[in-house]
Amino acid sequence: MTLGWPHYLGAFVGASILSLVLTPVVLRFALRKGVLDLPGAHKSHSDPVPYLGGLAIVGSFVAVIGSVAALTNQGGSRGELIAILGVGVVLASMGLLDDLRSVPVVPRLIVEIFAGLAVVALEAGVSFTRIGWFDTAITVLWVVGLINAVNMTDNMDGLSSGLVVLSSLSFFAIAAANGQYLVATLSAALAGCALGFLRLNIHPARIYMGDAGAYFLGFLTAYLGLKIQFRESNESTTFAVPVIVCIVLIFDATMVTLTRLFHRLSPFKGGRDHTSHRLVKVGLPIKVAVGAIHVVAASAGVIAFVVSRVPSGPGWVLSTWVLLLLVVAGSLLSFVPVYESSTHALYKLERQSLSPKDRPTS
Fold this sequence. Notes:
Blueprint: H1 5-33, E1 36-37, E2 49-50, H2 53-71, H3 77-101, H4 105-121, H5 132-152, H6 159-177, H7 181-198, H8 210-227, H9 240-245, H10 247-262, H11 275-281, H12 286-309, H13 312-333, H14 340-353
Antiparallel strand pairs: 1-2
């Protein structure tokens, strides 16, 4: 059975409708059981919000792709599909346990590394260096990194789910243009289930996806990035395309990790120091901040599509410009005072700039 546009549309619409239907069901269940994300020091919400939305995301995606796996077996892909769904469900289960009981960092990392090794075992990892152990390390780093990047950006209403919608649609466009029918179908389904959930997740959010949804979406986003293939003329820029598609996720996780280490804070704890928080800190409303980040992600998807279609030379030029812009953006955002130490430094700087008579006495 050959997949094509009717199947793409069916996967997208089917996943969207299922997610739209399941999300309110999960919302009512979470409210009845009292499974709520309570406000806290590093939280951006002020009222308790249910956070089992990941169950709706996982359920809708598994149902749709399970149907695809039952209907097609292109080149033995059914076995890989089932294996990937299995790994995704294991990650979602660990995330759900973390939502309910709080799992320590080390066990979570072990399961995430297992997920990366599973991708390698399925021969879906990177292979551009031809050095086995090094390619394996890069694959695991990519998988673990994106799982945590999606989880870290789930810090403001509609942000993470919207980014997954945009990255999935970008992967869909690239895969469809390159004749990767199965990858395009997976991407369409992932975009659909995230979009269906987004309806109740936009500000003010009525439900959160929790770690269960974030780990599942992060893993599948990483997997789709590894599965994207290109024409031979683009071989040298192959690795840049999925990086550009996911650049907002990578940028936020990298900036937060580096700035926390600089301020001697743990990268593994929550905080209000992400890109979204910094934009709100400088005066943008939540919806505007989230929308601005989504616009950047959509633009990155367009750039990634162009890079995947042009020869290597122009592709490298575009990729370099994206990198330079990110360095500038990261440098500017790093000066936003989101830590206690940086706030004190800014306060001292402001005091020094005042004349003696204008300085506060206490």
